[in-house]
């Protein structure tokens, strides 16, 4: 199965399904509570597509250049940018759109949850302790895998470089809104779990078809279903965490209020600084 064949069967078709649902919801004027809707959603997805391509390109090129993963030359077009085939860049874009549309589908259906308050209908309460704790945990995990990347055995390469690359991007999301993400924890969890699990499962098909392959010497050899490396699952989960966190924080009205508060605080600091400067 060619790489574009994989994208057509397993990524494009779900995108078209959820795009159709999104357009139907718009015609039905289905409301989305607690989030910005319509044009801001498409802008948010577009921003994440751009960031996904820009941020993932160096990391992916390094992985291919060092043989962590590689592609069957008979199953790709042969057109590459750097070391990476054009199909891989296409996947960055399509995964972002798929996750974005799935997030939108869930955000418009809070009744899917047995406890609707978990979608954020209850009153939001800021929680700085949660922000500090989650940030400390993330930094600690990043330091551990940074050490393994530079000083650990080769088997840690794929896992450690993935976390070395991804966790710094998650850090500002947690600093800004770990408590907001917890407030919408059911939406966030479902938005991550379903597409990450789905992409992990269809990845098994691509591995069996040798559309791409993973270096056994640069992975921990922990395999699911006898073929899917743990690192592949981590990759799909970590990318969907980045996308879900970003969409939630960009579009929730609680975040808009926090942005306004931060902007006002910055303005106060600027005025104080200017006053002190003028007083000298």
Q: What percent of the residues sit in helical stretches (DSSP H or I)?
A: over 70%
Elements, N to C (H/E): HHEEEHHHHEEEHH
The biggest beta sheet is recorded as: 2 strands, antiparallel
- Largest sheet, spatial ordering of strands: 1-4
Number of strands: 6
Radius of gyration: 21 Å
- Put simply, the count of helices is 8
Overall geometry comes to globular
> How far do the termini sit from each other?
72 Å
Strand content: 5-15%
How is the quaternary structure best described? single chain
Return the average pLDDT rounded to an integer: 91
> Can you tell me the residue ranges where pLDDT is under 50 for at least 5 consecutive residues?
none
Global structural class: mainly alpha
């Amino acid at each position: 199965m060619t790489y574009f064949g994989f994208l057509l069967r397993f990524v494009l078709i779900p995108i078209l399904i959820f795009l159709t649902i999104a357009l139907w919801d718009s015609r039905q004027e289905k409301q989305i509570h607690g989030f910005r809707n319509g044009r801001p959603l498409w802008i948010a997805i577009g921003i994440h597509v751009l960031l996904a391509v820009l941020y993932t390109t160096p990391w992916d090129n390094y992985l291919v250049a060092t043989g962590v993963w590689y592609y069957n030359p008979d199953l790709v077009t042969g057109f590459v940018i750097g070391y990476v085939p054009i199909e891989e860049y296409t996947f960055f874009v399509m995964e972002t759109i798929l996750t974005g549309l799935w997030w939108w589908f869930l955000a418009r259906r809070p009744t899917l949850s047995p406890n609707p308050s978990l979608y954020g209908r209850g009153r939001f309460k800021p929680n700085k302790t949660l922000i500090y704790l989650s940030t400390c945990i993330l930094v600690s995990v990043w330091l551990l895998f940074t050490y393994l990347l530079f000083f650990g055995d080769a088997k840690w390469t794929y896992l450690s470089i993935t976390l070395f690359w991804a966790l710094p991007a998650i850090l500002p999301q947690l600093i800004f809104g770990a408590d907001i993400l917890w407030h919408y924890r059911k939406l966030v969890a479902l938005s991550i779990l379903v597409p990450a699990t789905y992409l992990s499962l269809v990845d098994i098909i691509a591995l069996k078809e040798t559309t791409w392959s993973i270096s056994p010497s640069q992975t921990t050899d922990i395999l699911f279903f006898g073929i899917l490396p743990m690192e592949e699952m981590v990759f799909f989960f970590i990318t969907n965490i980045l996308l879900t966190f970003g969409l939630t924080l960009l579009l929730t009205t609680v975040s808009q209020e926090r942005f306004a508060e931060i902007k006002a605080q910055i303005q106060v600091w600027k005025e104080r600084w200017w006053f002190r400067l003028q007083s000298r």
